[in-house]
Amino acid sequence: MLKIALDAMGGDFAPEVNILGAIEAVSDSEIEVILVGDEKKINEFLKEKKDFKGKVSVLNAEDQILMDENVSTAIRRKNTSMRKAIELVKEGKANAVLSAGNSGAMMALSFLLLGKLPNVDRPAIATVMPCLKGHFILLDAGANVDCKAEHLVQFAYMGDAYHKALFNSSNPRVALLSIGEEGTKGNEATKEAFRILKDSNLNFIGNIEGKDIFFGSADVVVCDGFVGNIVLKVGEGLAEALMKMLKREIADVITGRLGYIMIKPAIKSFRKKVDYSEYGGALLLGINGTSIICHGRSSAKAIKNAIKVAAEMAKKEIYRRISESLQNTEEMNESQNSINGLLCS
Amino acid sequence: MLKIALDAMGGDFAPEVNILGAIEAVSDSEIEVILVGDEKKINEFLKEKKDFKGKVSVLNAEDQILMDENVSTAIRRKNTSMRKAIELVKEGKANAVLSAGNSGAMMALSFLLLGKLPNVDRPAIATVMPCLKGHFILLDAGANVDCKAEHLVQFAYMGDAYHKALFNSSNPRVALLSIGEEGTKGNEATKEAFRILKDSNLNFIGNIEGKDIFFGSADVVVCDGFVGNIVLKVGEGLAEALMKMLKREIADVITGRLGYIMIKPAIKSFRKKVDYSEYGGALLLGINGTSIICHGRSSAKAIKNAIKVAAEMAKKEIYRRISESLQNTEEMNESQNSINGLLCS
User: Fold this and answer.
1) Where would one find the signal peptide in this protein (chains A, B) (predicted)?
2) Which of A188, A238, A259 has the CB atom closest to B235's CB atom?
3) What ipTM was estimated for this complex?
4) How many structural domains compose chain A?
5) Which of A84, A90, B17, B199 could disulfide-link to B13, CB 3.0 to 4.6 Å?
6) Are both B143 and B97 inside the same structural domain?
7) Does B289 contact A at CB distance below 8 Å?
8) B187 vs chain A: nearest CA distance in angstroms?
9) Where does residue B219 fall: left (phi above 0), alpha (psi -120 to 50 degrees), or beta otherwise?
């Protein structure tokens, strides 16, 4: 039985959707959820529900972090639901933690309380995105804004390990997001990272351009957090804007309304495929534990899916795999350095 | 009568689409086009066409720059069609130049031969992009990969002047592309640029997030060339991928095919609105002349539209406006510095 700590007070529709998501997640799985937050509010909501078979419990937290609160002050408060949820993992009382609340605070607190893995300079946010051929992993999606080449290289290793764990893949294609396919195209950080990655033991397929990521040309797309966050949000916004523009055009055509009714099941199925809530939040890679950041607008379904992904990643001990993967890199680099040292001496 | 120099040999479908685009552009306007390239090939194509009323002429160039050629060697050759076309502007024999060829070479040669404007450190590529409420200008779309705050500030001024010239607007809303609306969110360069821009005389509306650009929340969106190029190409790729995914879903639904026929005029009109070829290429801002870089896959229609935009920008002397706008900034900064000097002394 895996125990998942959920910050019940985080997110735009908290605590309702979090509680509903938790109940849905435990109903057909070997998962227990600990809801952390305002005990009174949560219990009031829970008492109307009878179908969670004792697999949902509550841990009281008087305080909570608001969505737009300043991170540096918010993380100092001791009794917030987010902090208490993460502490459950630290104390070994839960296998993973998730929150749809203030993402900056979630990142900072996870880092602070759980610590980072050896050989990791900076933890990264990894998101699963839909594309023509299934999905790809994009990282960093917003944890680090000014990155050096060595950070991008670490992201590549972490993304590789995550893809293998999440999709049971054996040799995911790893690419650097840049502005041209040749290794000479890009900014200083990507050009240097390209040189390091092409000699790595990853299945590095080189640079990928923005136009190709949604066609499934790579399984792991690596970039700094500034670029990654913009790509993530451009994707979200553009998909929504395009559907609105298309609907407006359809309304302007005489046969459009009838046609729209006929293609509506297709649009519904399409929306489901590009809907972020199907993919269960973003995993924080590089920290010593399993921590998932959910979209602020998460629905109950999104929370349910995120809980399941959290349980799976905790079960597969993704953080241990990443640690091992980076350990190998470190050893490789060291032996390479010794060889270089011998050659130069 | 405005004279436009066109690199007839540039682009994936050269010279045919370039010649056709030129003929279409001159047919209903006060524009003359000088086709620069392989005289024999061009004339062979031209002789079958009779409807250009002597407004299309040819200048021979024996050599041409290939699409994927190394820029630094390509720009040294003296007889390329691209170089000769730009020289026409330098010599005052044409009012503007355009090419759908190697964009790196077009940028470097325009910069080299025409020179940059005073007060500009780096020229930028400005593209017009469709959104829910019309269009917005994105810059830099790929000229500068590693930017400092002062470069972003110059882009903001250049984009403002371009928007005013292109859309006859009086006070375009200028925004910085970043990862949060607050000025404290972003990377080092955007945070510093935010501080400078909020005290500028531009209509600076602050940061804009990736999800909002396609909803028309800003008229001018400023970012470095690495980010801008990725956003441009993510937009292009995602729109294409989404339409493919939607079509696949429609084909899977029983009533889908009939529905699709009924909404087809809407899809056509939609495609036209999001089609890059409607917006006539990207203008190189900050150089001493009018130079337009067209998409390598430009159709005849795209070339025609680009020629018309080139003529309009030449007529409005956009580069002089930018120069004046940046001159004002310089003077403002100087007087601000004098005031600061007085206060500190």
Assistant:
1) none
2) A238
3) 0.85
4) 2
5) B17
6) no
7) no
8) 5
9) alpha
